[in-house]
Amino acid sequence: MVSIPTPGHPVRGSTTGRPIMALFDLVGRRWALRVVWELLDGDATFRGLAHRCDDVSSSVLRDRLRDLTAAGIVERGDGGYRLTVDGRELVELLRPLGQWSQRWAAREHSVENGHARSSSEEVH
């Protein structure tokens, strides 16, 4: 069983214990962000969430819900699973990364279609 990443402890890819590295380990796990995004649409039962997540396997969904619940991002209530206040705050903080990723994708698409990058866009 893989341990749940927590600030102050080594995580995959980092031994520093930095909170940001624990967060990236947590949200970088298979299906973790998808579960969070799907819960933006409201509470969901386990089965309903599995369906929203394109029928993710029950073992993977169970593991992600365990991780996200232990981290305080998801909680279980009367209507099923839902985002906590911290979970909703995390989503708001991730929105700028989503916007950045859209610009990045557009640049990459442009390069793939034969348009050169400007010198300010070159990766060093």
UniProtKB/TrEMBL annotation:
InterPro entries named among the record's database cross-references: ArsR-like_HTH (IPR011991), HTH_HxlR (IPR002577), WH-like_DNA-bd_sf (IPR036388), WH_DNA-bd_sf (IPR036390)
Keyword annotations of the record: DNA-binding, Transcription, Transcription regulation
Organism taxonomic ancestry: Bacteria, Bacillati, Actinomycetota, Actinomycetes, Nakamurellales
Protein known as: Helix-turn-helix domain-containing protein
Molecular-function GO term, any one: DNA binding
Superkingdom: Bacteria
Taxonomic source organism: Nakamurella sp. A5-74
HTH hxlR-type domain: residues covered: 18-109
